[in-house]
Specification:
The protein is of the alpha+beta class and 463 residues long. The protein contains ten helices and 25 strands. This is NDP-hexose 2,3-dehydratase family protein.
């Protein structure tokens, strides 16, 4: 049975959850901490969690090695993740057959945010967490962000704080609980459990944690590289609290396409696309070269797999080494929005990515690294990319945000929300105009919106 986003009553009687979240979103200053105190706390955590990350040759990796037979890069424990090859055949796009390295991490991790009332206002327990791949060290993270290998202690380090809140929630505490995918171009069938759990006054914030209102978190979403990817995806799984009050929210009762039509479209795109993927030895990935310092594409495109050595004062293990995937170039993830008969709609694309479990998920209007397409004819470049770049100056939202720093090094994208004119068209059957209310409904289920689209849902709600 598909995991669902559950809206359940809180432990104490009171207003409905959506009304309480709206009240929390309205508190943009104050709460348990003032905004100045939040920024000072983040600066302090940055100093306390100083980490040193150094590129090293693969031979210097501790506990990792290339398999002599396949060339796959694996951890000695057989846990965490591995880097292997993937062969892809598809029926669409300018390139229909290719092979590539891909991260294989079959474990399902937990990304969870604890929710607690202070004077009747819900607050989110957010963590200041450093990751080796972050461009700036500490970013704002969920209460819990852990792989199964980490929270079961495979690394031999200290326990993950607050983990029991999410592994064993009490009756009526679960607000959201849904399996969601991660980057389908870089991960093979990767999923994490996205959770929000209500807690009581027995849960207090440790040094690396702070209780923030939803309004404060929404303000921080407007800062470059501050709210991390894992926090953004969990935030998107909250029920939409806006209830038609904000200037970018529609009447939930009307949309260009009915919910049934949208679900039929997604199912049809999944059934009609022919995408065949097969794991292969990394050594057999055509067009990819392994040097002492990187697994890299022969044309210098896409991404590299590199090795890093890490020392950190703020992690369960103080020092380790690991591979990271490092993209070539800055990404663009742009969501076009417009009003149709006065109702806001967003333009989503049904994307097929090789690592998706269900072939197709809905992504933003534009999602790419432009440099990877510069060698192709104009007709083979991503639809709407030129319009997105031309309209950046008028974007309602334009923030540089990092992807997951535990697996990716210096991976950043320009996330944009661009309001267009009412006659702006959907270019092909790959695209549909959906209301925020419809996106909220799709987020109740697994594998419908990809991680980039979920970030933009969280951003859209913050405006």
């Amino acid at each position: 049975m598909t995991a669902m986003n559950l809206v359940l009553p809180s432990r104490a009687a009171g207003p409905p959850l959506v009304s309480r979240l709206a009240a929390s979103a309205a508190v943009v200053e104050g709460g348990v901490m003032s905004n100045a105190e939040v920024l000072a706390w983040l600066d302090e955590r940055q100093r306390e969690q100083q980490q040193h990350v150094e590129r090293v040759p693969f031979a210097a990796l501790r506990g990792w090695r290339f398999d002599q037979r396949t060339g796959d890069l694996r951890h000695d424990s057989g846990r965490f993740f591995s880097v292997l090859g993937l062969s892809v055949h598809s029926d669409f796009g300018p390139v229909r057959t290719w092979s590539q390295p891909i991260i294989h991490q079959p474990e399902i991790g937990i990304l969870g945010i604890a929710l607690r009332d202070f004077d009747g206002i819900p607050h989110l327990l957010m963590q200041a967490k450093s990751e080796p791949g972050n461009v700036n060290g500490v970013q704002l993270s969920p209460t819990v962000q852990a792989t199964k290998s980490n929270y079961t202690g495979v690394h031999g380090g200290s326990a993950v704080p607050y983990m029991d809140l999410f592994r064993r929630p009490g009756p009526g505490q679960v607000v959201a609980d849904v399996l969601q995918s991660e980057q389908g171009s870089w991960f093979l069938h990767k999923r994490n459990r996205n959770m929000v759990v209500e807690v009581g006054p027995e849960v207090v914030a440790g040094d690396d944690f702070a209780w923030l209102t939803l309004g404060q978190v929404n303000l921080l979403l407007r800062h470059d590289n501050l709210v991390n990817m894992d926090a953004r995806t969990v935030l998107s799984c909250l029920p939409d609290w806006r209830g038609g009050r904000e200037n970018l929210v529609e009447d939930a009762g009307w949309s260009l396409h009915t919910g049934r039509e949208v679900r039929t479209w997604i199912t049809r795109r999944r059934a009609e696309h022919e995408v065949s993927v097969a794991p292969i030895p990394l050594a057999q990935a055509q067009g990819w070269l392994r040097t002492q310092h990187a697994v890299t594409h022969c044309n210098g495109l896409y991404f590299d797999v590199v090795a890093v050595d890490v020392s950190s004062r703020g992690r369960e293990v103080p020092a380790w080494s690991q591979p990271l995937l490092e993209p070539r170039g800055m990404g663009v993830a742009a969501l076009f929005v417009k009003r149709i008969d006065g109702v806001v709609h967003a333009l989503l694309r049904a994307r097929a990515e090789p690592g998706f479990l269900d072939v197709v998920e809905l992504g933003p209007t534009v999602q790419c690294v432009p440099e990877n397409y510069e060698h192709l004819p104009e007709a083979d470049r991503p639809p709407y990319l030129a319009q997105a770049l031309a309209r950046r100056e008028s974007a309602r939202y334009d923030v540089v945000l990092s992807e997951e720093g535990g697996r990716f090094r210096n991976a950043q994208s320009h996330y944009m929300i661009i309001e267009t004119e009412s006659d702006f068209p959907a270019m092909s059957d790959e695209f549909r105009w959906l209301t925020p209310h419809q996106l909220d409904e799709l987020l109740c289920y697994s594998h419908h919106l990809n991680v980039q689209a979920r970030t933009l849902v969280a951003a859209l709600r913050s405006l």
